[in-house]
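Hi C.,

You asked whether I'd gotten around to modeling the 63-residue construct. I have! Everything is below, sequence then structure, no commentary in between.
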Amino acid sequence: MAKEENLGDEGPLRVLKWDQGLFKQITRGFRFPLEWDARYPGQNQIAADAPPGYITLFEDFFL
């Protein structure tokens, strides 16, 4: 996904800035159980697009 400038506190949610490689590194490194069914979002999805029953986790929390 493309990076987007931080639009500040009043702007829309930022586009995801990590890639699938970092996603896999985090899910393996923190030993996410397979039953969690962690998913990397699809193209053009934002944090608010998590499917029902899922939560959004942000890269900065892990790094």
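If it helps when you're writing up: Residues 26 and 61 are 11 Å apart (CA to CA).

Thanks,
B.
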